[in-house]
Automatic annotation (TrEMBL):
SUPFAM superfamilies: NAD(P)-binding Rossmann-fold domains (SSF51735). Pfam families: NmrA (PF05368). PANTHER family: CIPA-LIKE, PUTATIVE (AFU_ORTHOLOGUE AFUA_1G12460)-RELATED, NMRA-LIKE FAMILY PROTEIN. Signal peptide: none annotated. This is NmrA-like domain-containing protein. InterPro entries: NAD(P)-bd_dom_sf (IPR036291), NmrA-like (IPR008030), NmrA/Isoflavone_reductase-like (IPR051609), PCBER-like (IPR045312). The lineage of its organism: Eukaryota, Fungi, Dikarya, Ascomycota, Pezizomycotina. It comes from Purpureocillium lilacinum. Keywords: NADP, Oxidoreductase. Residues 5-238 form the NmrA-like domain. It comes from the Eukaryota.
């Protein structure tokens, strides 16, 4: 597969978007275009080419993607299902590579694939696999498991805000975790290694760790705080979420228990058995990195 030069990003203003955009631009290798939804007030750094697009119009999408060789999708939950429309437009425009917003758990794991929270991601991944057999479009899926810095800063991996973190099923499950920067580095490397990353899932991680180990490090940083961890049953919170979804209650918070299952139940593959770190140039971090994060996050 020939080298990729022209790259378009969608969803570049979201949680992961700015980091990936900055990494792709900073590489100095690619000509970068951001596709922005018409009417959006999102802003981007000076010098970034921004094209406003009607994402509901196949013709407008095709025109916006003309000349692009790769598309990086960084859309959030509301836009996941609509990625199939962008894929169709990418095929029509002759795009070579599509990287969907699949970042997170290993959705090649049969159990993880069935979790309701991942339904749209699985749908898009399957659609890409189908289209790659029928057309010249190729794809790469990225699994990074937990977002390390983002997850700690937002008290998702371990809630240190009130010193009463929930420990799921005892907190001993080892999971892979990756920083936002490393995800951005991986995306750049995928674009630089199109043949080696063609039509498959790549796995990256900076560290393997558990909730209990995170708690120990947090207590090391702030030993004088009134730590009182709470034991939570994954089965219990998932059962409650199942019941709510069965009643048609699709509030975003009702999908969160499935994320905790994906990260804290060993059967769902949260600790990667193999990675593409060497190929993609992703380096490991040690617990000192986590300690420095906690020094910023935990109120002193």
């Amino acid at each position: 597969m020939s080298a990729i030069k022209n790259v378009a990003l969608i969803g570049a203003a979201g949680g992961l978007g700015p980091t990936v955009l900055n990494k792709v631009v900073a590489s100095g290798v690619f000509t970068v275009t951001v596709l922005r939804r018409e009417g959006s007030k999102s802003t981007y750094p000076a010098g970034i080419t921004v094209v406003d697009v009607d994402f509901e119009s196949p013709d407008a999408l095709k025109a916006a993607l003309a000349g692009q060789e790769a598309v990086i999708s960084l859309v959030g939950v509301p836009g996941l299902a609509a990625q199939t429309q962008v894929i169709d437009a990418a095929i029509a425009a002759g795009v070579k590579r599509f990287i969907p917003s699949d970042f997170g758990s290993d959705l090649d794991n049969p159990l993880a694939r069935k979790l309701p929270v991942f339904a749209h991601k699985v749908q898009v991944a399957d659609y890409l696999a189908e289209k790659s057999r029928e057309t010249a479009l190729t794809y790469t899926l990225v699994s990074n498991a937990a977002f390390l810095d983002w997850g700690l800063e937002r008290h998702f991996l371990l809630n240190t805000a009130d010193y009463k973190p929930a420990l799921y099923d005892g907190g001993n499950t080892i999971f892979s975790a990756t920083t936002l920067d490393s995800v951005g580095d991986a995306v750049v490397s995928i674009l630089k290694h199109p043949e080696e990353t063609k039509n498959r899932r790549v796995y990256i991680e900076n560290i393997k760790i558990s909730q209990n180990r995170l708690l120990a490090l947090a207590q090391q940083v702030a030993p004088g705080k009134p730590w009182l961890p709470q034991q939570v049953s994954i089965d219990a919170i998932v059962k409650e979420a199942d019941e709510k979804l069965a009643k048609g209650d699709y509030a975003p918070e009702n999908f969160i228990p499935y994320l905790f299952r994906a990260l804290n139940d060993p059967a769902y593959g949260p600790s990667f058995q193999k990675t593409d770190n060497e190929l993609l140039g992703i380096k490991s971090v040690d617990e000192n990195y986590v300690i420095e994060l906690f020094k910023r996050i935990i109120k002193q």
